[in-house]
């Protein structure tokens, strides 16, 4: 029977926030775990919030079977209003008992309590706890939890929850129990339980204060050999957080559990982190260098939440970046601090900025644009976005820039001293950083700085340089602006730290002498803090017109407009001591060539897209003995099709794809001997080690193989494809093996099919490796227009399951979101297939469906016939009467945009 959609979902607005009418002091939960019918007994001690007018108690619930409600041990009168359980005429303090049942085995949404491969897991952020029991399911209600888990011992020998294990034992009929007590108050979204057949890697560590802690990483029995890196990452995270910010591990034990069915990457439940297997399991045979890096970052991220998210949490979900933006910044700093040298730190920074500019900048310019602290939402799950996370991290980074590294550490200390154990706001965080640094620019500019939280969109900083030969001065004039976004037509000036330097024409870095500040020490890099729409800065003692190096280290999340000449960019590329701007110069040169050809209308086939100066500059980077391999790989990787498209007013995806492919082919052919040299220099990295130096060499060798196979395809030569297949067969680690496979697949060589078959045969029992196998094919170049047909075949493969989010992402997202050249078809077949998948997924897992629905966020920029066809596909989804509010919000906003 078709379920009709309810009335239009009502938006939740930040301005409507009101404190809860009731507080929950203690929660005593008893679970009798059964996949078909889990029984949950919830006893709560509650009291009225005397600061709020008297109101009925309204408890949230979702897909629960309610069996009993008792107040102080007596039957209570209640009513249901939608999904809420409402109780009137309650005393000021009382004990409430609620008994419910649910069916975890049928929970395909993977929110609340669900079963994955015969193991119980929970996911409660943001509003999943209401799918376990009726509750005040909001982050500002913090309570003390005691949890009793009961289950069949043979089926579920491991019973875990938050906090400390205080009691365990046997029960009749082959059952057993475990009792857990969390010593810290927490909101319901941080609750977790796990029950199943698991094994653990254990490590005891001693903190600086001499206290011992037990660390455990739980996985399925066959995966224990893949947990060493995750454990080491956890140990490094604990040590770093205490050394950098003075924040110690506060629990007797800390647990990580991995599951293959998970909507998110990981979840920071207090003391019991639940992870997608993708961010736990690794050994050199099954995981790439990128996997190792991601595991280190995500393990760090979730552990750092123990303070920035758990000990101090969000007052409401509009403050989500309070924990996520801050913690992304912390995990970025962690990964950089683990790097042995400045070059590796720079590579990490460039990688982070590349994610921001290819994912968050388009979001800022699209229909889903929202501030770092949103003003409203219909479904909070839709706001776990790159704006909240990555842009939020950049806002925190700017705070550190304005107060300094030591000042920021003081601010963090004050923040936790003030707010430990409370649910607070982004304003509280910013105020603590400013108050700890009263003489800083942040303190002076705090009200204006907080516009980063309230205004959506990516600011543009237009810059012009003027050299006065007579006065020997150089002046930079800055103009900042920000385009309108949905619901925000007028933007006030931001506080924008712009770090800059000057280079002479020969590439030498100049000493800076600011006009009007002659007493200041001479420096080679200066941070100008923009606060007005128009500002300028002048430097004295400049003997000839310099080359400005602006926005060093990407000091603010803005678009920089400066009319560099090719010669100036080549100077920066060859000489800038700031690695980010050196990389950026190469990207600008490549982007300039791409846009010129795209907009010219010229035939791409047989066209020389890159001039000799650029090719020579790339050769110079590749051959430069002073540059790290990892940095070379970044410079020699062309801007993505997505990033190129974002620079255009109207986008023809097929032309963008064709131009970029032509650029790749030219670089492959023109630098053929250089690629051969680079491969030979970097192919042997010795015994496997995922450290930045070794990983960088493997990355450059992999890029070299891709280019050598591309060049061979153009020339008809079979030597390098043959060598690449042999490399694939002989590889001693997954990075080298997968790089070789990627080179064959991306070049479209006939040997790719042989390698793909062999790869599947070797790794058919390794789910995460097979995800890579699916993803590589779904993301392959569409030279014959056959990738959509291939994707349809992949979905029929015995190893494919739509219900597993990782597998769905490996095929559907790889095609729709990461393969624009194949997805944007003139016949609209890609869009039709996408709309079918969104609708199909929405009935199973609305969160995953809503994320897939965002693949056409930027449809209004498309040229015809893509534009009309994309809009029609979105409208087809929006017209569904049974659509979840998750997906409905996304497609409704897309159509409005």
Automatic annotation (TrEMBL):
Its EC number is 3.4.11.2. Residues 457-562 form the Peptidase M1 alanyl aminopeptidase Ig-like fold domain. It is an enzyme of class 3 (hydrolase). It catalyses: Release of an N-terminal amino acid, Xaa-|-Yaa- from a peptide, amide or arylamide. Xaa is preferably Ala, but may be most amino acids including Pro (slow action). When a terminal hydrophobic residue is followed by a prolyl residue, the two may be released as an intact Xaa-Pro dipeptide. Residues 230-441 form the Peptidase M1 membrane alanine aminopeptidase domain. Residues 566-896 form the Peptidase M1 alanyl aminopeptidase C-terminal domain. The keyword Nuclease does not apply. It holds the Pfam family DUF3458. Residues 107-190 form the Aminopeptidase N-like N-terminal domain. The keyword Hydrolase applies. Keywords: Aminopeptidase, Hydrolase, Metal-binding, Metalloprotease, Protease, Zinc. Its cofactor is Zn(2+). One of its GO terms (molecular function) is alanyl aminopeptidase activity. Belongs to the peptidase M1 family. This is Aminopeptidase N. It comes from Variovorax humicola.
């Amino acid at each position: 029977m078709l379920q009709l959609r309810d009335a239009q979902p009502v938006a939740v607005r930040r301005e409507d926030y009101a404190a809860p009418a009731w507080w929950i002091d203690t929660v005593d939960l008893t679970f009798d775990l059964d996949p078909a019918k889990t029984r949950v007994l919830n006893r709560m001690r509650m009291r009225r919030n005397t600061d709020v007018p008297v109101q009925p108690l309204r408890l949230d619930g979702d897909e629960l079977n309610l069996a009993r409600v008792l107040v102080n041990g007596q039957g209570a009168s209640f009513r249901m209003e939608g999904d809420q359980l409402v109780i009137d005429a309650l005393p000021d303090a009382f004990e409430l008992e609620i008994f419910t049942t649910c069916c975890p085995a049928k929970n395909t949404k993977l929110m609340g309590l669900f079963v994955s491969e015969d193991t119980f897991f929970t996911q409660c952020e943001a509003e999943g706890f209401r799918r376990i029991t009726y509750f005040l399911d909001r982050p500002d209600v913090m309570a003390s939890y005691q949890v009793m888990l009961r289950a069949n011992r043979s089926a579920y020998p491991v019973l875990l929850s938050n906090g400390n294990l205080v009691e365990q034992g046997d029960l009749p009929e082959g059952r057993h129990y475990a009792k857990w007590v969390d010593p810290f108050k927490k909101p319901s979204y941080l609750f977790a339980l796990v029950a199943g057949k698991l094994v653990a890697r254990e490590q005891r560590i001693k903190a600086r204060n001499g206290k011992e802690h037990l660390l455990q990483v739980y996985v399925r029995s066959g995966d224990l050999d893949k947990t060493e890196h995750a454990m080491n990452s956890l140990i490094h995270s604990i040590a770093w957080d205490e050394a950098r910010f003075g924040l110690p591990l506060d629990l007797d034990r800390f647990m990580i559990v991995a599951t293959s069915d998970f909507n998110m990457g990981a979840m920071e439940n207090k003391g019991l982190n639940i992870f997608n297997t993708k961010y736990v399991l690794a050994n050199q045979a099954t995981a790439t260098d990128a996997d190792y890096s991601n595991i280190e970052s995500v393990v760090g991220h979730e552990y750092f939440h123990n303070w920035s998210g758990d000990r101090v949490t969000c007052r409401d979900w509009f403050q989500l970046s309070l924990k996520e933006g801050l913690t992304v910044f912390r995990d970025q700093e962690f990964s950089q601090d683990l790097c042995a040298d400045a070059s590796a730190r720079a590579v990490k920074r460039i990688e982070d900025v590349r994610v921001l500019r290819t994912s968050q900048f388009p979001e800022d310019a699209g229909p889903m644009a929202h501030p770092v602290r949103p003003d409203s939402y219909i479904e909070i799950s839709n706001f776990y976005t790159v704006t909240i996370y990555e842009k939020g991290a950049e806002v925190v980074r700017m705070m550190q820039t304005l107060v300094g590294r030591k000042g920021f550490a003081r601010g963090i200390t004050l923040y936790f001293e003030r707010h430990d154990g409370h649910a607070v706001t982004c304003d509280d965080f910013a105020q603590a950083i400013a108050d700890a640094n009263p003489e800083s620019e942040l303190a002076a500019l705090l009200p204006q700085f907080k516009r980063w939280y309230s205004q959506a969109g990516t600011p543009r900083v237009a810059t012009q340089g003027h050299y006065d030969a007579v006065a020997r001065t150089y002046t930079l004039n800055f103009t900042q602006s920000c385009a309108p976004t949905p619901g925000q037509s007028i933007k006030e000036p931001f506080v924008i730290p712009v770090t800059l330097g000057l280079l002479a024409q020969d590439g030498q870095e100049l000493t800076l002498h600011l006009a009007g500040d002659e007493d200041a020490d001479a420096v080679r890099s200066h941070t100008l803090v923009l606060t007005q729409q128009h500002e300028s800065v002048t430097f004295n003692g400049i003997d000839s017109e310099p080359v400005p190096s602006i926005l060093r280290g990407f000091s603010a999340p803005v678009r920089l407009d400066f009319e560099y000449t090719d010669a100036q960019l080549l100077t920066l590329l060859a000489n800038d001591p700031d690695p980010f701007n050196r990389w950026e110069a190469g990207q600008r040169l490549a982007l300039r060539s791409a846009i010129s050809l795209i907009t010219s209308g010229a035939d791409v086939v047989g066209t020389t897209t890159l001039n000799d100066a650029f090719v020579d500059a790339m050769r110079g980077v590749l051959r430069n003995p002073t540059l790290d391999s990892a940095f070379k790989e970044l410079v020699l990787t062309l801007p993505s099709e997505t990033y190129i498209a974002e620079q255009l007013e109207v986008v023809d995806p097929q032309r963008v794809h064709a131009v970029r492919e032509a650029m790749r082919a030219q670089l492959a052919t023109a630098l053929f001997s250089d690629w051969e040299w680079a491969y030979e220099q970097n192919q042997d990295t010795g015994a496997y080690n995922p450290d930045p130096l070794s990983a960088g060499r493997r990355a450059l060798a992999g890029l070299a193989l891709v280019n050598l196979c591309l060049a061979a395809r153009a020339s008809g030569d079979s030597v390098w494809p043959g060598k690449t297949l042999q490399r694939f067969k002989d590889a001693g680690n997954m990075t080298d093996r997968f790089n070789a496979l990627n080179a064959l697949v991306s070049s479209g060589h006939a040997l790719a099919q042989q390698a793909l078959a062999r790869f599947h045969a070797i790794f058919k029992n390794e789910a995460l490796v097979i995800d890579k196998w699916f993803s590589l094919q779904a993301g392959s170049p569409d030279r014959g227009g056959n990738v959509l047909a291939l994707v349809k075949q992949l979905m029929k493969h015995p190893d494919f399951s739509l219900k597993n989010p990782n597998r769905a992402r490996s095929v559907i997202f790889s095609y729709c979101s990461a393969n624009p050249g194949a997805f944007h078809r003139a016949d609209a077949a890609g869009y039709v297939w996408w709309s079918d998948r969104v609708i199909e997924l929405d009935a199973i897992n609305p969160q995953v469906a809503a994320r897939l629905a965002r693949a056409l966020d930027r449809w209004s920029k498309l040229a015809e016939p893509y534009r009309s066809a994309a809009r029609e596909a979105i409208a087809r989804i929006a017209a569904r009467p049974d659509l979840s509010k998750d997906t409905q919000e996304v497609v409704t906003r897309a159509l409005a945009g």
